[in-house]
Amino acid sequence: MKDFSMLFPGKVFVGYNSIERLQDIPFRGTRGLIITGRNFARKSGLLDNARKLIRKQSKEVFVFEGVEPEVSVETVDAAVELARRYRAEFFVGLGGGSAIDCAKAVAGIYRDRLSVKEYLDSKIPVRKDTGYMVAIPTTAGSGSEATKNAVLYYTQKKIKISLRGESMVPSAVIIDPGLTLSMPPELTAHSGMDALTHAVESLFSKNANELTEILSLKALTLLVDGLPAAYKNGGDKKARYNVMLGSFTAGMAFANAGLGAAHGIGHPVGAVLNLPHGLVNAVLLPYVLKHNMSACSAQLEQIKKVTGIDLIKKIKSINRSFGIPARISAIIPRAGEKTDEIMERVEYSASMSYNPVAMDEAAVKKILKEAL
What we know:
The protein folds into 2 domains: 11-178, 3-Layer(aba) Sandwich (Rossmann fold), CATH 3.40.50.1970; 184-371, Up-down Bundle (Dehydroquinate synthase-like, alpha domain), CATH 1.20.1090.10. Helices cover 49% and strands 13% of the residues. It contains 14 helices and 8 strands. Strand 6 and strand 7 (159-164) form a beta hairpin. Helix 6 (185-204) runs parallel beside helix 8. The longest helix has 23 residues, at 210-232.
């Protein structure tokens, strides 16, 4: 028996064309800010449609565009300034994980006259009365729509760092697989492997509980089945549905159970080498699972018995089918020369503390030596 608590988004809409439910969401206030990326939402017509649906409730809607693939603290502060200028009361994160993370951060701090860097540097808690926040993912991978944290790139320090607060969990989420049908294969692969890593690491996390294990395992089966099919044929509606639902389910799992060493090591690797987060996770995950065998072998055998999946072999097979190499050096030659710089940025709290096998400097160096 284990005592635990769970934290989930307030309202979730799942299904093709569920974007239309945006007109039914009980937004708090009369003025809102849509926060999105640089291209997709506007070029696809999604941004205009979202504004039209919100305006059906007689709301004023403003837009902040330009969120990078790895949202920086400078971008968050720019969006916060716009939110204050327009006196926004609700926020819509429309796009990939970075757009949603940016919107969550803005909703969390816009009421205070502080920079997000001040929150991060001084560990100032996010206030409980944050802005009403709606998450609409257009990629399937980050799981940000289910979590209480926003992963930001701290440019000056060259690190990824999270702003956290329970009040930052979105009030409403729209999971519309139709928004992912145009995702290119490489983005499908990288974001999908991020989601698969969430499912695997939350399943083996020290903080897992009976409910998160159910979510993790369901996410795992949805993603293992759906990802290769979605990569092969981006228009496969069933595969896209499974991948997006798998990503969200994995997000709910890791939001409550935590992650592990693949993320703990992956964040500094991605920051130092300037590589996509999902790609780094995909490379690292087999090495981390191998390191964790002493604690996870029984669970891995149980997964194989119940699902027929030999997890480590399956992950390596999926990586190969996506053209993801076994080592980072195949992407960035002499990546190993950055080991010391990466080690300086590794933190042994947060994700690392939930890893089923204790992690120390020697363990991290061993994994980096194999993976780089």
